[in-house]
Structures are given as C-alpha cells and as structure tokens.
Amino acid sequence: MIKKSQSSSADTIIFDLEDSVAAHKKGSARETVFLALEAAARPGPELAVRINPPSEARALAEDDLDMILPSRQLQAIVVPKVEHEEDVRLIVEKAKALRDGSTLDEVGPLALVLSVESAASLLRMPRIVETIREGLGQDPFSGELASNATKTPVAQVVALLFASEDYCASTGILRTRDRKSLLFPRAHMATIAKAYNLSAIDMVCIDYKDQDYLVEEAQEAKQLGYDGKQAIHPVQVDAIQDTFNPTQEAVDRAATILHLYEHASQGENRGAYGLQEKGGGMTMIDRPMLLQASAVVDKARKAGMRIPEGKELEQQHKQQ
C-alpha cells in the first residue's frame, strides 16, 4: 500500500498511526512510517501522518512525534480528536525541539490539520485556533504573521477535518444515507474554517464502491463550502478531484471576468460592467464577483488546468 501511494494522484497521502494500527503494533508502525517518509519520491503528493490523539493517548502521541518529526519529508500532521489547545500545543513544542532551521527552510512550517470528532471539539474550535495562532505569533483570525513577529512559525494550522464516524459515536447521531443528520455539524465546521481562513475537509464516504453516491456526497460538501474530501480507497480519488475542481467552462468564464474587469476598471474607469453570458443574459460584474472568479482561477491553476489568456479571451468575448 505504501509503494502504491507514491503513484497516487491524491493531493495528500496520510500514513495512519491511529485507528488502523493494533495496540501491540504501534512501535513497528512508527518505524515503517518513518522509513516510508524518507523513501518517498519527490516531488509528489503532500506527505502527512495521522498520529495517536494527544487528548486520549498522550504518551503514544509523544512517541509518534519523536519518531516522525525528524523526517525532512514530513509536511503535515493530522491531529485526531482535538479537544483542547494543549492537544495542538504538544505538537508545536515537539516540532520546535525536533525540527531544525534547515528543515523549516526546505519545507516550510509543518501543516496541522485538526480533526473535529465531537460536539465539544466543534464548539471549542474557534478558541483552539485563536490560542494556537497567538502562541505562534500569528493573527488569530487570518493566520498571517503579526506585525511584531520576528520569525516564521515552526508549524501552523491549515485545515479543519470533519470525522463523521467518530462524531456520530460521540454524539449519538445516526448517520443516514441522505446525510441530513450531519448537515448542521458539517455546515458549522465549514463556517468556522472559513471564518479563520482555513481549508475545510469533508468526511469520508464509507461506501467506496458506489461512485454515484460518492459524487453526490462530494457535490453537497462543495455546496457547503468544503475545499476537499477524505478518501479511504484509491478508486475514490479521481471522482473527488473531478467534483471539487472547477469545470473548464467555469474556468473560462472566470478568466474572462478577470480580463474584462481589468479593462473596464483601468481603460474605462468603471468599477463594474455587464458580462454577456453564453445563454444571452447579462450579469453585472463587480468586486464580489471578481473575488469569486479569482478563487476559481487559483483553484484551476493548482489543479494544472488550462487557463485562457489575452487574445483567446478577447476572441471568446467577441463570439458571445
């Protein structure tokens, strides 16, 4: 499985030291994961490790960190069952002790993905994020370095992840196929993530053989504001990426909006303009629409999609 993961088209590969590892195999699993990190071909997917939860098994979590943090190829840690600031602070302090300056220069700050697995975690998450960021010298809401900060933080919170099965187990919620029972916590977590300039990662689709259902679930997550989704099987990756990546039509439209807005604001001194749509309608384009178009183009660029420019855009606009 580790060898196959190197050829995956997933954005991030997560090596798991938590639930998938039997208690008597924890030590050997750590060694296997460290070797997998060191042997991973670069460039490639982001390399992450899900450690044991500091909130429940602090000693195991510390042993995990002692083993994997020295790896120069480790880029992210998924922190399960985050309940308090101390669960995250443990990782930050360990990273300060075990990651030297050259590692930080090579790969940047260690990315922390915080897993929401209980109602208490969901409600406390704003305070947790703010406290950790303040301790790292960052603005508590945006995550940007504070004006008085003197150096790049060794780690930073980058995303929240919704762990549906553990959330159901801790709250008594019954997960139904229509997902209505999880609509509120999923939407609430996505809202918190966006309020703190974090990515929101949706729950796993446990029926990995039903591609139509996976796409339906991913489309719903996208509508709720999620940026991506966990996959538990390689066959899920392409469908998830296809769903969360913008369509080529959306990319073309967004690029056109940016191009025409630049001409309207600079050449014609206008803050808004009307965009002739393919269907014949006219859409008013102003700053909020511009921000949405920029987000689409940025996502397309990260996905390696074709982004039309210059004369191609002008020709498309003339044809409309």
Please provide a written account of the structure.
The protein is α/β, with parallel strands linked by helices. The chain folds into two domains: 2-244, Phosphoenolpyruvate-binding domains (TIM Barrel, Alpha-Beta Barrel), CATH 3.20.20; 248-319, no CATH class. It contains 13 helices and nine strands. The protein has helices spanning 2-5, 26-39, 58-68, 85-98, 101-107, 119-135, 164-171, 183-195, 211-224, 237-244, 248-266, 287-302, 310-319; strands spanning 12-16, 46-50, 76-79, 110-116, 155-162, 199-202, 228-229, 273-276, 282-285. Its cofactor is Mg(2+). It comes from Pseudozyma hubeiensis (strain SY62).
Instruction: Average the pLDDT over all residues and give the rounded result.
Output: 90
Strand residue percentage: 5-15%
Strand order of the largest sheet: 1-2-3-4-5-6-7
Rg over CA atoms, rounded to whole Å, is: 22 Å
Distance between the termini: 49 Å
CATH architecture name of the largest domain: Alpha-Beta Barrel
Biggest sheet architecture: 7 strands, parallel
Helix fraction by DSSP (H/I, runs of at least 4):
40-55%
CATH C-level of the largest domain? Alpha Beta
Number of domains: 2
Low-confidence stretches: none
What's the β-strand tally? Answer: 9
Query: What's the overall geometry?
Result: globular
CATH topology of the largest domain: TIM Barrel
